[in-house]
């Protein structure tokens, strides 16, 4: 046990020191931009969104002074307190207000301070935002709504600062769910979400806000939604994940390679509607699938992926023996080292 | 009781005190976690400043800490006998006087908030009533549309009873709130409805054919047959589509009103809801947001006494809904919802204030749900028949208004008979047409979920079409494939 923990500590340290990559070769990606961390990339995307669209608004709890994670720094000074403003501490109010704002043809960029606090807004997201276009027969829509929420474990957040609630939202037709893995991805995906014609829930991996650093172009660019990204090509097993968990999985790929296992790593990026085709093609090649997410395994989004892929690659064709393994991380504050043990499980 | 007012600014505790060790970590994020925790606690701190400041000398020093630059005791005193009347606490929002009286604000005023009315029960204008006279033209349209709503409700209700439509909701007893409020608004004002405001659509020109198409869910229904009957919506009439959920539309009105404010429009958003809806969090969220963001929105509560079978005595203990506005800093009025002229005047004045002063207004209209909650409800099981009868007959808003227009010489029995018979005939025709019209195509089940159907929905549509092909007998024949 002690040796495992020591190994975990080593892995954690290596993760913390490691540069974040967004390229298939695993090296630091060069996008010919400025080196920046994830929250700065988000901040830059918000600046661009407000700059390029006079009908864009940013609001939520504490966003006026820059937000508790500093993602909205400088926005109110630059674009005015009418376009970047604090709201009362009320998540259902924030999303409900955002729906009304978006329905009038605006880009409503709402911040929920922590994904753990998004539940009071659940009804507004599920019954209102998701159904607004459909129920009106496309007369009205709130497609300009983007809900940003920091999610996931950071190692010391406990139950209420660490949850990964993405699966709840992936069950809801009418919204999109997007999670970036790195600063470059965060900027490009967030701009796509803001400009998408559908309401989007955008979960930001808060573990990576300051930790993840990579080159990010300073100009206005967008990355496609509903398109998975093959980060690393391999032939023995397909690994699928999203958000912060990919950094753990990438390390697992590197370690597995030393043991002669060739891993293909896929970042799903958009969870709803998700890119089945890319995952399917990869699993057809490797014959094995490992899905890993931070959220609880029961009813997690991994179950959807495994069910779909088993159906497409196994039940329909019966050609391969697909092994599917779920790996999850718990969100207890004290049991943080366990997620590192799970990293070892990935490798095993 | 002897008091000492302690100097409240002796010690400043740093805001960013890292009180919880577990927030310390390699990431600066811990800083923001503790900061957010602090922010969530500030109202608690303020409460302590306000109440415990007059406590014992042994009070822990942190309770005296100054949390805001803007908070300080206006005059520091050490002596018990000083005149306390001029002691104030500078607190965000203005000076707060200190008092030596340990007294609580009463749960309600002895007198209930009065109810504004223009016409008495017999349709006679009340003496000294300072109301805006409506023109004959407007008055006649108000009456015409109230009768239209009443007749439509009767016919559609019967159609549901005959099994021709699945469901219906009447606005019986609430015709004046529906139509007179709409009459006081401009077509540029956005309506964010609940589901008992079809009269607003009538006023705005939504036709009986359009109502029937929605209730029968045919291919002319703007909602493409996706919703239950009475879930109307019309872009052309600036009327958001109805959802069945209670109160969830109210915050939308605030967001929409904020957009109108930013666009400097000469218009406001108007949202309707019932007494039951005011118990939902969305009502409170919306009032608070509207006040803080200074949004030009009118909140119209149809307090009809009943939320399905729940009477208002089981809903709230406040003096109705009107008093809730002030707690949020929202100007409010209570009106007689069965008096069309009172509703018209109140909404007109509210609209002017909302737009001129860029502020929200709350209107509580007292009325009675003279019909059942919906066709799925039998309200004689939980309320006395005499009560319903009294409101239907003695308090009917339509006949009260009729008395007034008759007293002006604008209406007659002949005109009445002609109008009602014409409407009835027209409605029966529209029902037959709507019933015979083709249903929306099956493809409509999958469109508009997103702007463009994504691959997963395309795949599901293929599955459905395949199933229909293999089991054609189980598929309704009147839905085009």
Question: How would you characterize the overall build of this protein?
Answer:
The complex is a heterodimer of chains A (348) and B (481). Chain A is built from 13 helices and 14 strands. Chain A folds into two domains: 2-29 and 227-347, Rossmann fold (3-Layer(aba) Sandwich); 34-216, Thiamin diphosphate (ThDP)-binding fold, Pyr/PP domains (Rossmann fold, 3-Layer(aba) Sandwich). The two termini of chain A are 16 Å apart. Chain A has helices at residues 2-17, 38-52, 75-79, 91-103, 122-129, 132-135, 166-170, 183-195, 208-211, 245-258, 276-286, 301-315, 337-347; strands at residues 34-37, 56-60, 84-86, 107-111, 145-151, 176-178, 200-205, 213-216, 229-232, 237-241, 263-267, 270-272, 288-293, 323-328. In chain A, α4 runs parallel beside α5. With 481 residues, chain B is of the alpha/beta class. Chain B has three domains: 21-97, no CATH class; 136-436, 3-Layer(aba) Sandwich (Rossmann fold), CATH 3.40.50; 442-474. In chain B, 39% of the residues lie in helices and 9% in strands. The longest helix of chain B is centred in the N-terminal third of the chain and has 26 residues, at 136-161. The N and C termini of chain B lie far apart (83 Å). Chains A and B meet through α4, α5, α6 and α9 of A and α1, α6, α7 and α14 of B.
């Amino acid at each position: 046990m002690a040796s495992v923990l020591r190994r975990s500590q080593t892995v954690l340290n290596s993760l913390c020191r490691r540069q974040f990559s967004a390229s298939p070769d695993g090296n630091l990606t060069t996008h010919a931009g400025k080196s920046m961390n994830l929250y700065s990339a988000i901040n830059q995307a918000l600046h661009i969104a407000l700059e390029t669209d006079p009908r864009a608004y940013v609001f939520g709890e504490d966003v006026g002074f820059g937000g508790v994670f500093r993602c909205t720094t400088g926005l109110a000074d630059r674009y005015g307190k009418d376009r970047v403003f604090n709201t009362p501490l009320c998540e259902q109010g924030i999303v409900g207000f955002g729906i009304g704002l978006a329905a009038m043809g605006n880009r409503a960029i709402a911040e929920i301070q922590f994904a753990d606090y998004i539940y009071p807004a659940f009804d507004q997201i599920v019954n209102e935002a998701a159904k607004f276009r459909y129920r009106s027969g496309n007369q009205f829509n709130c497609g300009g709504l983007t809900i940003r929420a920091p999610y996931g474990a950071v190692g010391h957040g406990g139950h209420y600062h660490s949850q990964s609630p993405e699966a709840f939202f992936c069950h809801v037709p009418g919204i999109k769910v997007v999670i970036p893995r790195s600063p470059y991805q965060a900027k490009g995906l967030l701009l796509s979400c803001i400009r998408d014609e559908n309401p989007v829930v955008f979960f930001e991996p808060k573990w990576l806000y300051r930790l993840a650093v990579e080159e990010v172009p300073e100009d206005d660019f967008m990355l496609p939604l509903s398109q998975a990204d093959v980060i690393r090509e391999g032939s023995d097993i397909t690994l699928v994940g999203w958000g912060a968990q990919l950094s753990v999985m990438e390390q697992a790929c590197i370690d597995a390679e030393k043991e002669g296992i060739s891993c293909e790593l896929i970042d799903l990026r958009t969870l709803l509607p998700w890119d089945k085709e890319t995952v399917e093609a990869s699993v057809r090649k490797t014959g094995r699938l490992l899905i890993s997410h931070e959220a609880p395994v029961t009813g997690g989004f991994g179950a959807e992926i495994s069910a779909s892929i088993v159906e497409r690659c196994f039940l329909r064709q019966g050609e391969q023996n697909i092994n599917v393994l779920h790996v999850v991380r718990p969100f207890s504050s004290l049991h943080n080292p366990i997620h590192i043990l799970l990293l070892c499980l990935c490798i095993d | 009781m002897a008091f000492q007012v302690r100097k409240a600014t002796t010690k400043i505790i740093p805001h960013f005190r890292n009180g919880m060790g577990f927030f310390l970590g390699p990431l600066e994020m811990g800083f923001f976690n503790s900061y957010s925790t602090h922010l969530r606690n500030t109202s608690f701190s303020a409460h302590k400043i306000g109440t415990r400041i007059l406590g014992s000398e042994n009070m822990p020093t942190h309770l005296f800490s100054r949390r805001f630059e803007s908070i300080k005791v206006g005059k520091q005193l050490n002596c018990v006998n000083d005149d306390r009347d001029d002691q104030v606490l500078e607190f965000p929002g203005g000076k707060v006087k200190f008092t030596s009286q340990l007294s609580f604000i009463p749960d309600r005023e002895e007198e209930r908030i009065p109810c504004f009315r223009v016409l008495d029960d017999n349709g006679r204008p009340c003496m000294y009533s300072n109301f805006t006279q409506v023109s004959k033209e407007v008055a006649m349209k108000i009456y015409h549309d109230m009768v239209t709503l009443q007749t439509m409700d009767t016919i559609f209700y019967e159609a549901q009873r005959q099994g021709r439509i699945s469901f219906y909701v009447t606005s019986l007893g609430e015709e004046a709130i529906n139509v007179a409020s709409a009459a006081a608004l401009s077509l540029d004002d956005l309506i964010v409805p609940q589901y008992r405001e079809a009269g607003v659509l009538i006023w705005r020109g939504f036709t009986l054919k359009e109502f029937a198409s929605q209730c029968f869910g045919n291919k002319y229904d703007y909602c493409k047959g996706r919703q239950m009957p009475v879930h109307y919506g019309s872009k052309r009439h600036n009327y958001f589509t109805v959802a069945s959920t209670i109160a969830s539309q109210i915050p939308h009105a605030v967001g929409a009103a904020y957009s109108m404010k930013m666009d400097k429009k000469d218009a406001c958003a108007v949202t309707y809801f019932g007494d039951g809806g005011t118990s939902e969090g969305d009502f409170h969220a919306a009032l608070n947001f509207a006040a803080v963001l200074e949004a030009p929105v009118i909140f119209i509560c149809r307090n009809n006494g009943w939320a399905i079978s729940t009477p208002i005595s089981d809903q709230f203990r406040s003096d109705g809904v009107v008093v809730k506005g002030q707690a949020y800093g929202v100007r409010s009025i209570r009106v007689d919802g069965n008096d069309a002229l009172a509703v018209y005047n109140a909404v007109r004045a509210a609209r002017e204030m909302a737009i001129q002063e860029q502020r929200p207004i709350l209107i509580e209209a007292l009325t009675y749900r003279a019909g059942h909650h919906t066709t799925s409800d039998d309200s004689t099981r939980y309320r006395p028949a005499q009560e319903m009868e009294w409101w239907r007959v003695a308090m009917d808003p339509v006949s009260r208004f009729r008395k007034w227009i008759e007293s002006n010489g604008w209406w007659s029995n002949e005109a009445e008979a002609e109008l009602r018979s014409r409407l009835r005939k027209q409605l029966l025709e529209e029902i037959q047409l709507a019933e015979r019209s083709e249903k929306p195509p099956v493809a409509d089940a999958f469109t508009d979920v997103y702007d463009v159907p994504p691959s997963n929905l395309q795949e599901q549509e293929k599955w459905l079409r395949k199933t229909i092909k293999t089991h054609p007998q189980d598929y309704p024949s009147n839905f085009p494939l």
